[in-house]
Design a protein that fits this description.
Alpha-Beta Plaits; 4 strands; four-stranded antiparallel sheet; globular; alpha+beta
């Protein structure tokens, strides 16, 4: 099953600092997830000042439970309180883009 995960960063004064602190660990997880075929696409959302304010990830897991257990529950942006709100929507990558 494919999912679209949208993580919205916090908007408090320390939000950018938390993101930058957790970013190296997040990118390490991202590489592992991409290499394993779990993450299909990932994009940082930017505001008008080109600052990161969230993330969009298209991923592939057996189920929503597997997504939570195998990734989201240990995601550095979750553990580091970077993402204030997370939305998960089931989706499907177009067949000509699917791996």
């Amino acid at each position: 099953m494919q999912f679209i995960v949208i993580g919205y960063d916090g908007t408090d004064e320390q939000a950018q600092e938390r993101r930058l602190a957790a970013r190296p660990a997040h990118l390490e997880v991202a590489k592992k997830m991409h290499d394993s075929g779990r993450w299909l696409y990932a994009v940082a959302m930017l505001n008008d000042e080109q600052k990161m304010i969230g993330s969009v990830i298209v991923c592939d897991f057996e189920s929503r439970t597997a997504l939570d257990e195998q990734w989201l529950n240990s995601e550095p942006y979750v553990l580091g309180r970077v993402w204030e709100k997370i939305k998960v929507i089931q989706g499907q990558v177009a067949p000509f883009w699917d791996k």
